[in-house]
Write a structure and sequence with these properties.
The complex is a heterotetramer, with 2 copies of chain A and 2 copies of chain B. Chain A is of the alpha/beta class. Chain A has helices at residues 10-21, 32-41, 48-58, 72-84, 97-100, 104-117, 127-139, 156-164, 174-181, 187-206, 226-241, 257-277, 300-316, 336-353, 364-387, 392-402, 441-458, 464-472; strands at 62-64, 91-94, 146-149, 169-171, 212-215, 246-252, 284-290, 321-323, 420-423, 429-433. Helix content of chain A is 52%, strand content 9%. A 5-stranded parallel sheet of chain B has the order 2-1-3-4-5, sandwiched between helices. The chains are: A alpha/beta, B alpha/beta. Chains in contact: A-B, A-C, C-D. Bound molecules: cobalamin (B12) (2 copies).
Chain lengths: 480, 147, 480, 147
């Protein structure tokens, strides 16, 4: 499939939409004129893009969960509870994994089971089978904005229905969906699906309805942040090309304070720089942070500490939106009670630290991390542009093929998978193997040095067992 | 030259689930313990498991599922295995099988009734899994791993 | 009563001991030779003073609760549970308030009730009525050091029995006991009682048994830290004069990160400096931090966040011992389960942050706080020395009288009580009224400026209601 | 010139307890609401309360206790009040009266049985306390305070 980073012609978009809306009966409910009207009558306070800009202007940090339930009732009750009891500022419709993979018939079957049994069956909100009307039943019951949530190779129909249903943004992206959510789908196909989604958001923007698009890049697993920042910036540029105007920069916190803060700073600086360079100077960027997706501790007392810990990082990083997992994370889909407790914990921590406007970003450890991170990102990203002859999409397709864009523990067989991360003696993520990434000696030696330090601390060579252990060590109650 | 494996297992994640970390770690442990591991990765149908198991004449199938949809995804699996002549292939499933909180006994029963020989309780450590597997297959543990 | 800061002659000490040991029958159980022998056979790992020095050398932060229960059984079970389930590194025998006030007969009555009813009746461990034997039953069951805990005007017999019983330190001091634990006792009497305690510890030190003495200065209530540091340094110098060799510097965290960190730095620097100046250069000082004693939130999810929050401050401040309250704090004496949950929460947070050895102490906000704090402490302390003609004890007696040593919300009628604190717009404690403290214009203007900022933020003048509200605002879920 | 107070109250902390913040805040609220407040501070015996109440002819005694020993400290207080001719003086107690967790009804009953007219549930806000007091004494609220 031939693909590039240029804006889709209306005609092409229209053809594509006809196919997509035909994927499931509820597609026929989508009528853009009506959707635009629906959004216009919503109070601005329910628009996620406007709300995060307010946070940026007023130096606020908002709290945002990532959860969803299957039936209209369960989902509405969950979000109302999160809004009123959990004091969550922005809400989410986490999409179930059947819908994420366009297995709508399975989603429907699960939904029926859930309605029959009265207990949750699906791991998220099946927005497509609920259709526009069902989705609006949820949105209408709330005062806060709601985002669609969750990477997936094909969220086109999900967006047609989800946005028409009143969601004002989405979190996910083509790169993360490729690495971590598919097995054998070419990256160009997934990018194409996201160009569709981004174009649709662009259309809403053209109608005067801001839509918040939150890129995700890649799922971290003891990954030096450049492994996430590079694909995230690629997602940013793909979105901007289709007319997306409000982009949220997702920072995947892994626990090392200096490295996580440097991630937030470096990503924002370089995203804005590459947007500017590529001629998208009218795109607003805001920042979001969320805790890692490695295995969680099972004990609530410990998880509360993690929730507080990652809230701390988000606040010190000055993000506009701070995401959080819940005390149910290790066990099952978050209940509304567990979610509310979790967000009250995050809120308390936030209400202690936020008003202080303490700025530790000039800390030398943070700057050292920033310095190396920036070099890594530029090295890879510039290579991608070079390979694409200036076109980031063409470059991406080539770079994935050559392992210049690479990820550890990818689910896709189309990924080189040579890169591997390990923690250094302070718990920061370093390259154990930098695979075929186009790094110079300085970068490589930096990581080798850190690895040596860890080996001295352990007094043994780092084995595959060390690496595996690093993946789950937080669930055992410590960063290292 | 590598010595013959003590037993052959097929591993993979069923359905639209992407949780691969657990089974990957398990595969690593299995290989280190001398098993011949055929890994299917994520996004597998029941047929994918059965096809590979027949092809390599597997002693056991280790099916992983975390996303919470396992019950819907394994329906009829045991029968299909039998029809494919895999009556003697032991069927294991593990991960995080249901999305709601229920007593483990209930969950376990659900999947035993579905025809699985063993249902792994969530968060089970590789060491404990290997021990069980060696007991079931009458093979000897090579690694000495803490549960 | 004539009193000065010179070491007690043995003869005088002996006379005093005879009187004290006669205060309650169990006094006769105390035999110093036997006590020394008992301590000598204890493993060094059970000595608090040695353990905190280890923490200082190895850059560790230990966790320490502050709790105690009434019967031998309850108390032993509580401490074993805290040690094994709560992973607490140093344990405490929080002393009940009857014993703290030498109402031993009431303590005995309460203890009988507790033994009869099987439920706790006293708010701490009545060490005196339990006697040396009873106390050792608890100590013998543990692997970690145990401290006596809690300010009181007269803990002489408590120390005779508590130390002979195997405790290896105490937290409290004459100044805090005067301001916050008495109504009408002259400060010189309380200092005299503490000279006794300090001399007793000095005796143990002379026998080669390190004893950890943790000064406490004054209970904060929206108090600029110099209000605590000054009396704490006075307590340090009084202890050193009687031969105490291991002193722990108690930092009362009130929630403002920059101010709390500056407290930890300033106190340590000046304590060491004044010890040196006064010729006590062989005294080892270590640092301890603990969360405030203002009203706690009632909801566990919020308290967990506070526990994590104050653990963060302690770690960033590099303290050797980090204290913490529990999720039971607002409700009742901590249960063993509540305590264990609380310390597992603190431990998780510690295990995330500590290994990073992140140093933010050169942060400019921290340094600004340090700068003003140091000026305040020197101004008052030097005046105290001047009034005492170089004798800190004589100076203290005079300064209290003149309101140069002063506290807000003191319980003692003998305190001037003109000083009053209020939070600034970032949540830091500032002087609303500096009373008769010998401050120069620069210091006063600094605080006035901060007050003005708060008034602008509130856009109203600060009223007594604002001040009162600041006292309990954390329990409502926010620093300001 | 200050107008006459609408009612006279004696406040203080009983026993060896030092928790004074709460009652101080309460005193502030009481004064602002027009009560004449005689404050005893901490460390008071039953006799201290009774002596002051007789001296100023108090309409009510507000006794605070947080350290958890209240039950032991108030034994016989009501009788002593009566003997001192304070039958009509209303007796209030509040703070955090017991050290263990028990149903509030139990705690309340314990102190009602001891002869107190009202037992304040922990954490009660000044506003709510003033409202109750004005109702009981038939006085008019001056402040309009949220509970
Ligand atoms: C990491 C993670 C992810 C990563 C996965 C990365 C990857 N490629 O593996 C990402 C971010 C991609 C992800 C996505 C989602 N996740 Co997820 N995820 C987790 C998390 C945090 C940890 C899982 C993990 O890696 N564990 C570590 C490994 C080592 O342990 P393990 O997998 O349990 O495996 C061990 C044992 O179980 C055993 N074992 C495993 N399989 C088998 C099989 C056999 C036969 C045997 C004998 C043993 C065995 O051996 C392993 C070694 O000890 C869990 C929650 C938690 N546990 O903390 C949620 C969790 C599993 N995810 C969940 C969900 C719902 C999702 C999503 C659907 C999104 C959503 N709505 O939350 C999507 C899935 C989309 C899709 N298409 O599948 C839910 C599942 C609900 C449930 N089952 O109750 C959980 C519990 C989180 C939650 N509370 O909601 N997730
Ligand atoms: C601050 C505090 C202290 C400070 C007190 C400073 C001071 N001078 O006031 C210090 C550090 C000195 C202290 C010491 C101790 N404390 Co303390 N302390 C607290 C804490 C954290 C807050 C109390 C407070 O100030 N609340 C804020 C005020 C505004 O609220 P309040 O007092 O409840 O008063 C309000 C209402 O209750 C009501 N009210 C109060 N009195 C009355 C009376 C009447 C008649 C009415 C109608 C209403 C009323 O009006 C007020 C305004 O709304 C509480 C726990 C908590 N609640 O978070 C523990 C707590 C009260 N302390 C406790 C204890 C045990 C002690 C100690 C014995 C040490 C120890 N073992 O922990 C020592 C006491 C030594 C002694 N001799 O008394 C326990 C009490 C146990 C129990 N009752 O179950 C508590 C609950 C902590 C705990 N979980 O262990 N403490």
């Amino acid at each position: 499939m031939e693909i590039s980073n240029s804006k889709w012609p209306d005609t092409y978009f229209r053809e594509q939409r006809d196919k997509v809306l035909a994927m499931w009966p509820t597609g026929s409910e989508v009528e853009l004129g009506d959707a635009v009207a629906y959004h216009k009558q919503m109070p601005p306070a329910k628009n996620a893009a406007l709300k995060v800009l307010k946070a940026r202007d007023e130096n606020l940090t908002y709290l945002c969960p990532s959860s969803g339930s299957d039936t209209i009732n369960n989902h509405r009750e969950l979000l109302i509870h999160l809004q009123n009891e959990g004091e969550a500022d922005i809400l989410t419709s986490y999409i179930d994994s059947f819908t994420r993979n366009c297995r709508f018939e399975m989603a429907q079957e699960g939904l029926k089971k859930a309605e029959a049994s009265g207990r949750p069956v699906l791991n998220g909100f099946p927005v497509v089978v609920h259709g526009v009307g069902g989705t609006r039943e949820v949105i209408n019951a709330l005062d806060n904005p709601v985002l669609l949530f969750g990477p997936t190779p094909d969220a086109r129909l999900t967006h047609e229905i989800g946005l028409a249903g009143g969601h004002t943004g989405y979190s996910g992206g083509p790169m993360i969906s490729f690495w971590n959510y598919t097995k054998d789908v070419p990256v160009e196909n997934i990018i194409h699906n996201f160009q569709y989604i981004n174009r649709l958001m662009g259309f809403y923007e053209e109608q005067g309805i801001p839509m918040l698009y939150c890129v995700s890049g890649a799922m971290p697993s003891i990954s030096p942040p450049s492994l996430m920042i590079v694909p995230e910036i690629i997602e940013v540029l793909i979105a901007a090309a289709q007319g997306v105007k409000h982009i949220q920069l997702n920072n995947w916190l892994q626990g090392h304070l200096a490295q996580d803060l440097a991630y937030i700073l470096t990503f924002k600086q370089l995203a804005d720089e590459y947007l500017e360079k590529s001629g998208f100077s009218d795109v607003e960027t805001t920042t979001y942070s969320v805790s890692p997706t490695g295995r969680f501790p099972t004990a609530h007392d410990r998880v509360y500490a993690l929730i507080s810990y990652f809230t701390m990082t988000g606040i010190l990083g000055g993000v506009q939106v701070c995401g959080s997992r819940t005390i149910d994370e290790a066990h099952h889909i978050p209940t509304k009670e567990g979610s509310a407790h979790s967000f009250r914990n995050a809120r308390m921590f936030l209400n202690m630290l936020c008003p202080q406007h303490m700025n530790i970003l000039e800390n030398k450890d943070v700057q050292a991390e920033q310095n190396i991170m920036e070099k890594e990102v530029r090295a890879v990203l510039d290579k991608v542009f070079e390979l694409g002859g200036g076109d980031v999409v063409k470059g991406t397709v080539a770079a994935v093929d050559m392992g210049i864009l690479d990820q550890p523990y990818a689910t896709s067989q189309r990924v080189r998978g040579k890169v591997l991360g390990v923690k250094d003696s302070t718990g920061a993520a370093r390259f154990y193997d930098a695979g075929d990434l186009p790094f110079d000696r300085e970068i490589l030696e930096f990581h080798e040095e850190k690895i040596r330090e860890r080996e001295t601390a352990l007094n043994q060579k780092i084995s595959y067992d060390t690496i595996i252990n690093d993946l789950t060590v937080i669930s055992e109650g410590r960063i290292i | 030259m590598k010595k013959p494996a003590k037993a052959v297992v097929v591993t993979g994640v069923i359905g639209e689930d992407v949780h691969v970390t657990g089974i990957r770690i398990l595969e690593h442990a299995l290989r280190s313990d001398g098993f011949e591991v055929h890994s299917l990765g994520i996004h597998n149908t029941q047929e994918d498991f059965i096809g590979k198991a027949s092809e390599v004449n597997a002693d056991a199938i280790l099916m992983s599922s975390l996303a919470g949809h396992a019950e819907m995804l394994v329906k009829g699996f045991k029968e299909k295995c039998n029809r494919a002549g895999l009556e003697k292939t032991r069927l294991y499933i593990g991960g995080q099988l249901v999305i709601h909180s229920e007593a483990w006994e209930e969950t376990e029963k659900t999947f035993l009734d579905q025809g699985f020989d063993r249902v792994a309780v969530p968060f089970l450590r590789p060491g404990a899994i290997l021990a069980q597997l060696n007991r079931d297959l009458g093979t000897h543990a090579v690694l000495d791993m803490a549960g």
